[in-house]
Please model this.
Amino acid sequence: MGAGYWLGIQKNEAARMKAETAVTGNAGAAKKTEPKILYYRNPMGLPDTSPTPKKDQMGMDYIAVYEGEEPAADVPANTVKINPDKVQKLGVRTENR
Model:
């Protein structure tokens, strides 16, 4: 009976080690595709940015801006952009007068 217990423990240990190796390998692959953080912006929409993470006056964490997510220079800061697919799903209609 002791030998059966010992064999069971060995199989479980081998399975756990294999699972940990798979998770570690996947984590390395995920890091390679992670986008680069350009800067951190104020969560309340103020023009204040920071090269390092920090908190604003109210204790809120600054939000990371990743490469490819930065706002376009020709779009005013108070403009809301909505994906055309979302507009279609919402059923937004426009009217010319």
Observations:
- The longest helix spans residues 2-33.
- Helices lie at 2-33, 84-90.
